[in-house]
Amino acid sequence: MRQALAIVGCIGVMALLAPHASDGRARQTTTFKNIKVFDGLTDEQIDDAMMYMRGSLGVQCEHCHDDKDWSRDDKEPKRTARQMIRMVREINRQLDDDLAVSCYSCHRGHVRPLTSLPLLTERPSGVSTVVKATPASNSLSAGGVLKRYLDASGSAGWSRLTTRVMKGRLVTSEPAVYPAELYYKTPNKFRSRIIVSGEPYTKVFDGARGWSADNRGSSDAHGGELERLRRQATFALPVDLETFYPKLSVDGEATIAGEPVVALGATGKGDARDRLFFSTRSGLLLRIESTTISPLGSLPRRWDYEDYRKVNGVRLPFKLRETDPDYTYLWEFTEVRQNVPVDEAMFQR
Ligand code: HEC
Ligand code: HEC
Q1: Which of 48, 77, 118, 265 is the most exposed place for a label (fewest CB within 10 A)?
Q2: Alpha carbon nearest to ligand 2 atom 35, residue
Q3: Same domain assignment for residues 150 and 101
């Protein structure tokens, strides 16, 4: 399970290829032992850079690492990666732009960069949804779009609910299929449980802290991982969306799978820039796109909300698809029950 071993966590921090970054928040790594090129970066920034390198080369962490001791330098690709980081810094110094060129500029998901041109049909399409300001979108307000979303999803119905239990499965691009269960309690207690080779793997958010646990032990969620868990834990997204995005504005119109949508732009925590897409027809939230700036380049992520169905007076997506640069997660639910007893101990360690 990738997430079990990835030291994930993301905070958006600009242009940190410069060796000794300092933005006031930066704190030297305390946990890592063998940092030679990323000195001066925080643990979260180093995590982000690792995810960026893995995605750029289309490899697993173990291509460069011995997962029993991440600090060892035995593997040739890890040593080469250090030279590559120095090379990228040198190129960018000459171009006078910290993020002009990075690993993905050459590697594009391959260990060995290609030099032959692809045919037109093999070229990857852009990662983000194309949004255009139109007379129709100019006449809308962000507050109006959110209000319509809240109404479409059941407005007053939310206040009558206290718990939710969702059962189904998690399908990943590994490829793998895991039986899955999610437990929610208002306002934001959450537990997810998937079964990996017969063993449970859980993630919990208790309203303030988050952690993941499997048969080998548990580990705290920090930085961006904690932020994502906090969002996943939200019981009523249509009610609480504004707490995640205090400053939203209308960006324009777009289409998602042929469906017209209106796009709101948002500045999240740190430098993260997010976009939210609402169906023009139903008013419901269909997609969120979010970008984290890693020290080596940006890491886009996308969440798609699909298959809305009405349960106890509110509309819930029965499919949630998360797309990362090198991984996808699809939560599919077959059974959703609300206001059923959920033991408080579920959210305790
Ligand atoms: C392309 C090679 C490459 C890939 C892929 C890669 N890393 Fe690294 N990793 C490095 C290099 C190089 C360093 C040392 C950086 C330095 O010297 O500042 C490092 C350092 C680390 C460290 C710090 C170890 C210590 O104590 O010094 C950890 C932890 C780590 N990587 C985890 C990961 C994880 C988890 C992944 C997968 C998400 C990953 N890495 C993917 C090249 C890689
Ligand atoms: C200017 C283009 C370019 C950029 C930018 C670049 N690389 Fe490379 N990289 C190459 C080429 C070309 C090779 C193959 C070299 C060879 O065949 O000897 C390579 C090889 C590698 C290898 C060895 C492949 C293996 O066998 O495992 C690693 C690891 C690697 N690069 C990591 C990185 C990382 C990490 C970054 C970003 C910090 C990066 N590269 C940026 C061009 C680039």
Answers
A1: 118
A2: 81
A3: no
